[in-house]
Amino acid sequence: MNSSWEIVVNGFDREKMNHTETILTIGNGYLCTRGSFAEKMEGQNVATFMHGVYDDIPVSFTELANIPNWTALQIEFGDESFRITEGKLHNMEQRLDMHAGVLSRTVDFETSSGKRAIIRFSRFASMAQRYLCAQKLEIQPINFSGTVKVVASFDGQADNLGLIHWNVCGQVVEANRAILHVKTRKTNVDVAMGMILGTDPEATIEQWNLEGHPSLCVVQDVSPERVFVLTKKVNIVTSRDSTDPVLSVNQMIGDCSGQSWEELLTSSVAVWERLWHDCDIEIDSEDDAQLIARFSIYHLLIAAPYSDEQVSIGAKTLSGYGYRGHVFWDTEIFMLPFFSFVLPDVASNLLSYRYHRLAGARKKAQLNGFDGAQFPWESAGTGEEVTPTWVPHFADPTKLVRIWTGDIQIHITADIAYALHMYWKVTGDDAFMAKRGLPIILEGAQFWVSRLEWNATESRYEIRDVIGPDENHDHVDNNTFTNFMAQWHIRLAISMAQWMAVYDHEGWKRLSARLNINEQLLTSWSEKADMIYIPQALPNGVIEQCSGFFEMEQVDLSHYAGRTRSIQEIFGIEEAAKIQVLKQADIVMLMYLFRELFPKDVIQANYDYYSPKTDHEFGSSLGPAMHSLVASWIGRKEEAYEHFMRAGQADLFDIRGNVGDGIHAASIGGIWQTIVFGFAGLIIDEIGWNVHPKLPGHWKRISFHFYYQGQRQHVEVTQEGGTDD
Amino acid sequence: MNSSWEIVVNGFDREKMNHTETILTIGNGYLCTRGSFAEKMEGQNVATFMHGVYDDIPVSFTELANIPNWTALQIEFGDESFRITEGKLHNMEQRLDMHAGVLSRTVDFETSSGKRAIIRFSRFASMAQRYLCAQKLEIQPINFSGTVKVVASFDGQADNLGLIHWNVCGQVVEANRAILHVKTRKTNVDVAMGMILGTDPEATIEQWNLEGHPSLCVVQDVSPERVFVLTKKVNIVTSRDSTDPVLSVNQMIGDCSGQSWEELLTSSVAVWERLWHDCDIEIDSEDDAQLIARFSIYHLLIAAPYSDEQVSIGAKTLSGYGYRGHVFWDTEIFMLPFFSFVLPDVASNLLSYRYHRLAGARKKAQLNGFDGAQFPWESAGTGEEVTPTWVPHFADPTKLVRIWTGDIQIHITADIAYALHMYWKVTGDDAFMAKRGLPIILEGAQFWVSRLEWNATESRYEIRDVIGPDENHDHVDNNTFTNFMAQWHIRLAISMAQWMAVYDHEGWKRLSARLNINEQLLTSWSEKADMIYIPQALPNGVIEQCSGFFEMEQVDLSHYAGRTRSIQEIFGIEEAAKIQVLKQADIVMLMYLFRELFPKDVIQANYDYYSPKTDHEFGSSLGPAMHSLVASWIGRKEEAYEHFMRAGQADLFDIRGNVGDGIHAASIGGIWQTIVFGFAGLIIDEIGWNVHPKLPGHWKRISFHFYYQGQRQHVEVTQEGGTDD
To answer: Choosing among A37, A73, A86, A157, which should be mutated to test the B contact, i.e. which has the most B CBs within 10 A?
Structure first.
């Protein structure tokens, strides 16, 4: 076992506690549980989130409901509770084994009265049985004999940072088992969870059937010669999976009672091994790159919906409260390349999520007076827009700030089409494209065509009053990214229509009839797409981000070195919108997405213009990976590496200070892209794939696999094998 | 015991459940507990509120935090839980004895398997020992023998309608005792609560020391010959009362362990008897008047801060979540007359609350650019403005409505001065007036003088852009009520300054120096007050409510008979502001407050103009009592009675449908006034008091006591003794 497979946190630092909880999250794509302590600890944000288990809230409409904690263990040595902040903490190590998907924690602890013990916790969410989680507790007394009590309970009043989403429907406590049945208060999603304990035969179990808090209290005499060992197998099922979740859980508990903790773990590890066989990236280097790569892949793997096409991955995965589990373009543009290349079934599920939510997108288009399907900027259970319109101001929570992204950050619809197209190119999944891709692409194109605004003076179509990727500038006209994506999307729709007319003629007749699409219409779309205005370029090829951007004041960001806040926070929201400072890549991102379409010197000119104007440190976490990718593409190896490390350290070392809210999902998806598309230089084109490696100077080797058209491929690039063209 | 001392609710009606919880609230002026069931019941809003225990929240700034439930009892017959919705409910009666302050509930219940028992619950909050509450449970098996388990617990995750305000700091469970220590998350108010159980000697008690949920499980064999009896004595102390609440509670539990439930109840009932001796109103009539009177007084008595001058009574008393425990003018104008006349010590506490919050009022004035002290429209812990500026729209919660009352409903400052003046007139408490009244009155006057706006064209002072009592009309200029109150307040300040210069010359020198007040300034105040514009009157004396009111469209409310919503809801907020429909008395209220200053025919003309334009049914609950009072004053006995009954039935019978949110505190204060000042016609003038009775035709007698200048007075009026002048 190489240390690059493990995240190890030594000691206890209250300041870093919430960051640690996030990065040590475990999961199996069905649920994720933050790496909080099993015992209560003030200030920790204990949470288990399950895909699709949303409940309604004010202002932000909906959020993933933190389900009752399945890991809670209350430990008593006589009349002293185990709390690392009381008594003496001799040593503590938390260790996340990403290869096996197991989090363990070893504590060398002495109570106030001097009882010392080594306490070891382990937990995993089974990759082999999605409804199964398991936990083990071992207590090795060092210098005392006496009674240990351990209470294992479910808390029916689980809350989201103080807000309770649950009603308790029922519970059972008997022998060594406990079952809790809760239901979300507004959306009526049932969650049933059961536990079965394995104890020393000498231990006794008290049944504390307190309403809302079913608990089992294990009592055992211990000594240095007599270790306490408790295993807890937990099954969790929702009404999304079963018509009778309580019955299902009851059966599952029975089923797993005959299997040991080790057997269950072995099954899970076997699946993890298959996953890593497909997904791992090996990097030979002396830096943290290998750890960063595996950390990023690990967090994508625990959040991936392996067998659910009704959910997608939120902007903070399932690892924290940030963005309330809402789904953004982060999924399609940042995470989907990973899945399309290495886990195409998951990519198919994520894209199907959008397909199943076309009704919400149609509703949004209709409410706004447009045709077709306009996907929401933030999406959750229903597929309707769930972006909050007002949020508390970051500096003064008594003031409200109007959030416009849900109204006018419209490029998301084209981003989804882009992801669909990439998935299809890589996988060759024609059936999916015909059945689910085409409706999304065509109805999205209908939206774009109806959204175009004719400028009679200039004889061109414009798209006014939008927000592009760079959210520092809102209410802008003709954002190049948006206009280009709209144009590309409409043209894609036309070519895919032509493709489908050949691929599945009967299907096309039905689909085109349903959508009222015919040859003449497609011709008119093509003419309109040709007339979409793409903003002016400078003589050297630098393209204006949006109308009027070049006239805005320029600010030298080097004057703000050492700052600890974003430029938007320093200038204020309104002033920041008037200067040439970007929250994240905008034109640079466009150049990356369509890097084959732009001459390299144009890409370079735009990179050189916009990158120094971008708030890489405290702007969007979506930015660094994109800049790394473009820097690689134009041969700026050092900058590519610098941006890669910035992205890689964001979550691992919390350099933005907000990882307590959850993993930056777009960033980790972007990190995978920087390695595969950037440093290894993998390119898919019309005839297949090839690589143009741009390894950082001190890296020796990158090796990984992917699937192309259903066939497993291997890429291994070294310094010698690199080209620098 | 007369039935007019009791509120009795028979059977179980889920629709009326939340209303019943509110009206059956018990309390002792330190805390109140809603009349929810001891066992869990979905949909009930279990709550105990304590004066001054606020915690911060978004949008509405602060709210009273529901403390951990001290009444929770989980009852098990073998493996069957006691829930009235499972099994068979043969009979249920809830009975609030307002004379003794005891709520009891008797349930004849049969489990699904056929075990039948009579279960009787009783609870009270001790009027004799503010930190003490007590509960008793008796279970009489009818047709079975077996084991009964009863779990008594505190829940450290108590929530306010889903929002948790508490962190658990510690707990103890041993023998027959349990203690829980919690702290509000934002304001760091500690609450410690302890229970000690009294059980049958044959019963056993299991200690379930589950973190956050300390519980005692009582197990006993029962039979028709062997009744189960459990008593629970509870002590609750906050860090507002003790530097070590846990220690205090621990001592108190010890102290009361030697006293029986009956002894504790007897002490409490003795105090209740003294209270009723002073506060009761006897009404001889065949209608519900006697019950309405006692119900209103009871709810004032349980919410009255008897020994705390740092708190006031919120608009929903301590009986529900409505208005989040915020304090409005409801206290000073509607409730304070009751306290000033019958419990002057409480009145002094309530007025002292405002005195101690002058800093908040000064801050508000300063923030708005004014002098002196401007009291907040909604007040809570700090005395700063806590009116939410935006709230969800009643018809579409995704839309926000701007609430302007915190910005411009400014008459509150004069309302407080009015209450102070009345308190002083009735009690003759010169020391209080000099020490605490004068600063409030003078600094309030400083606010008013700085708030006046000079209209050079008309050569007069105006007060523009306000909301008067009638909140249907906002952003109005020269609201007569506000202008008149401002003028009266400034003149009161001048006369009280003159009074104090004589009463306490040295004190006056210090106070006037601190406030920079001298003779010349007072003269200028007098001149300014004289020049305040009081809007035009029609030839018959009808005064315009605000500038432009007479030009607004008139709407015949009789066309909207049978409606179930307010006129504001029917027309919408903006349209309702453009028509002559009032949410509540405005000019009519002014006439009542200064009834000695207006000729009776002017009062009558204004009543006849405005009353038919007022939404008596679904407008403000503050309105009916005021209309009853003015109707009495002008001899409209039937209308006076009709409005009295409308006010009286509002809470008792939930005719507005929102009593689940709490008692309408202004309405019950107004009801007391309708009887004492309206029907009995009590008047205080410069030389003393006298009565001008206007008894409803079918009432035989009203009898009550009050204190005038410290002396107990008795009023008894009958039909014969009435005058109709």
So the answer is: A157
